[in-house]
Amino acid sequence: MSVTLAPKVDAGTRVPAAPRKHRYLVWAVVAAVLIVALTYALPPFRNYQLATVGAYLCVTAGLTVLTGLNGQLSLGHGALMATGAYTVAMVQEKLAGRGQWTLLVAVLAGIAVATVAGGIVGLAAARLRGPYLAGLTLAVAVVVPAIASTFDKTFNSDQGLSVYVDPPPLALGATFPYERWQAWLAWAGALLTVFLLATLVRGRFGRALRAVRDDEAAARIAGVNVARTQVLAFVVSAACAGLGGALFAVLAQSVSPGAFPISLSLFLVMAIVIGGLGSLAGAVWGAVLLVALPALTHSLTELIDVSPAVAQRLEGNLPLALFGITLIVVMLAAPGGIASLRLRRRKA
Amino acid sequence: MTALLEAEQLTVGYGAAPVLHSVDLTVAQGSITAVLGANGAGKTTLLRTLSGLLRPATGRVVLDGQDLRGVKVEQMVRRGVAHVPEGRGVVTELTVDENLRLGGLWRRDRVDAKRALDEVYDLFEPLARRRRFPGHQLSGGERQMLALGRALVGRPRLLLLDEPSLGLAPKVTAQIMGLLRTLRDRTGLTVLLVEQNVRSALSVADTGIVMSLGRVVANADAATLRDDEDMRHAYLGF
């Protein structure tokens, strides 16, 4: 027997079936082709900015899965990036000059170290909620750069370490611009990250993540191991942050505590909120903003005719102010973030 | 008949004051047992203890000969115990389909999990029509179906139902009660049903347990309870 409440609706109103499995792969390939085309069109500095967006995207994508889909707020992802970045610097120093492959090893090591660090934080985080979790992760953001500053033998204190990166492979031509190579590296990492995350969150893991976020009791009754899901979310997110940090080390060719301040962690959270919490498209918007807003303030301060001292101070503080204003405007106009605007228009 | 579930000397409380006092209980395999009683009698607490959400201070719960002490809530579904809590426990941000799939998430047998999902859609027509609707857009009756459906996707042996009739139209309640009986007959499902709605609960139940102030005061055939006028007046209010 079956239970019926309302008259049947004809089959014509049925919602279409789930999208095909290979859709994300197609997206990734299309995006890769577009990025490569773009790197040939852009001047070197723009390519460097594009590369930075790619590196940020690894982090924001991972963070939006943790915070948006699993409901765990992390104010310490900048520090997890730092662990990835320092690992790359140290591995590259050991292996320098042996060929392009060392970079892959170094980046993988960076991801591994960040993953372990994230696992440790995640184990503690699974027992904490709301403000306590924010406090713990904030402490991580404070402590990690401080560790780098303190141990001057290993981490060379505030000066940090330089990162050896090979020139682009000769196979690409002797005059292949370095910035284009950087953009390719960063976006290879970014597209891989987004592809893997999209696949992961669409399936069973994604359902468990969201069930835990929305209703822990209901999730447990349905057989979901809440603590394990939360730790896993942290581990996945930390691996992404590690990759992002590793790519930053490669782009800047140096790492220092100053590159991973607390404000970086805060910017990351603001970026995913503005972009649209829990949405990978929102993570892309967030990564773009993280590069575009500081660049915009730089142009603005150049327009205004002020003394160099004032200009310097403005440049230090304006990005934060602009980010704050953007956050307020977006929250008022589109509480679901930039990514939700597009959706709403499509539905209307 | 063999006992599927046995509770021995359960004493449970929130903080210092116990809510259940040395409760003994036996649920026969393939039976429908109604747990009846006034507000505050300890019915929900009993169900929450049986499903592992609450830890008893003393006593133990035995399922099919196995002691359930120390078994986590999320492990209970793997042992065949499904709990549909009061207020339904639907994850409102997830769609109907996602909620149902959540119920089968832990299962290794993906093929049968899919089959169970299809069966639930056959069983609950309104859910099939609202597959892609988020839980918060469902009506009370649909939510109840969803919670019940999610429990069934796990193919439980024992279904713990807390007030399935809460806020539902009598007609829908009757349908759900009829469904429980069908499931019992067809699959051998054992049901422990907490209800305020005594008439409708006793109409499907084989046995009834009457609770008052944290103790079991009667444990008898549903028919006997229906006909026992003193009992009805004293504890069941009709």
UniProtKB/TrEMBL annotation, chain A:
The chain crosses the membrane at residues 24-42, 48-66, 103-125, 132-151, 181-201, 231-252, 258-277, 284-300, 320-341. It is a multi-pass membrane protein. Keywords: Cell membrane, Membrane, Transmembrane, Transmembrane helix. It is found in: Cell membrane. Pfam families: BPD_transp_2. GO terms for molecular function: branched-chain amino acid transmembrane transporter activity. GO terms for cellular component: plasma membrane. PANTHER family: HIGH-AFFINITY BRANCHED-CHAIN AMINO ACID TRANSPORT PROTEIN BRAE, HIGH-AFFINITY BRANCHED-CHAIN AMINO ACID TRANSPORT SYSTEM PERMEASE. This is Branched-chain amino acid ABC transporter permease.
UniProtKB/TrEMBL annotation, chain B:
One of its GO terms (biological process) is L-amino acid transport. It comes from the Bacteria. GO terms for molecular function: ATP binding; ATP hydrolysis activity; branched-chain amino acid transmembrane transporter activity. Keywords: Amino-acid transport, ATP-binding, Nucleotide-binding, Transport. Residues 5-238 form the ABC transporter domain. Belongs to the ABC transporter superfamily. This is ABC transporter ATP-binding protein. The lineage of its organism: Bacteria, Bacillati, Actinomycetota, Actinomycetes, Micromonosporales.
